[in-house]
Amino acid sequence: MSITQLDPGEKLAEANGLTLCHQTFGRSSGDPLVLVMGLGAQMTWWEEDFCDTLAERGFFVVRFDNRDIGKSTRISAPPPDLGRVMAGLEPLKAPYTLDDMARDTVSLMDALAIKQAHIVGASMGGMIAQIVAIRFPERVKTLTSIMSTTGEAGLPPPQPNVMAAMLAPPPLTVSAFIETNVRVARLLRTYADPAEEATDRARATRAAARGLNPQGGVRQVAAIMASGSRKEALAGVKAPTLVIHGADDPLVPVEGGRATARAVPGARLLVLERMGHTLPRTVWPEIIEAIVELTRR
To answer: Would the pTM count as exceeding 0.85?
Structure first.
């Protein structure tokens, strides 16, 4: 993989046979906390202010670009035709699974000499975080799964208009990418907010500058589809667990969060009103306090 320029604070690490772009916040002597982002989203979707606030609470915070996104390794495999797969016209052939992405996370921890960490994942990142807790329990101090799900059958599906927006052909120009991101973020948030929309635009602009890889998002969707249900395996999670979900989530309805909390013994469920499938600044204090409280267990 060739990277022309790293932004200030960004570093590269060899992990699980890949190169992962990452950034850290806070003192290296702090309590390690790894942030795992969701489908098609770069690590910058964890806003710097959010990371700084966690660092101020005593954590050594790590955020990173998942494989196939941002400045991390792009997988050289053709993405599946998801339309044909969903129509039953061809079998799903996923170049990798969420288990592979969980191994990426743990391998990055190895590269950073982190033996154990608090693992916090959002959306697909929550799925990856769950698998880290399932497959690598000795590496997980606590698990926080945000706006995610177990992957089990029978849970309510996304709202049709939101699903259509997520699966639409990727934009072909930078300006179209930015406008599409602002529009989709509005759908995911479920309400208009000029301040949040300004943040969405700035974030999308930065993502475009860091490098776009539309096919990577398609391969990540395939990874989710190929990974199946975690419901039974989650029953074996021993790490103290927090499940956070928006009451108004249109992409992963709140029942997905409730199912996750039911699946993990002793998990705490925190449902936030007026939260969809984004992390608006208004809910940061409650999310951060809940994470801090969990880590004190």
So the answer is: yes
